[in-house]
Design goal:
By secondary structure, this protein is mainly alpha-helical. Helix content is 68%, strand content 0%.
Amino acid sequence: MYPIIFGVTITTSAILIMYTFLDKKYRYNKSIGSIEKIETIADVINYLKKIESEEHSTENMTERIYSILQENPLSEESLIKLSKLHKTYAKHNGIEGYAINMLWSCIVSVNITNITTVNDMN
């Protein structure tokens, strides 16, 4: 169920910890309550930090994001915002690219699962 995002979880902790201490522009810990409220790449990074702090680990981060997305499907407006962020930052080698690719891969996985489920019902 999670083949797309399996490899992403391996280095999550090290990258988030490294950038938390080294990159001052992401030290502002604006509390993002839901994926729907994400507006900027800093919001994506802070949301992942929030998930990591709640889990006290990054091992289950993708599963947690996946279940959040299953329980709270994103609006079309939110998908468009996140898609624009993905187009802008997906090829970045730093924390920005890593964060948006992790979130976007979870979104894609949930949507593929939902489409497959709907097709199986027909």
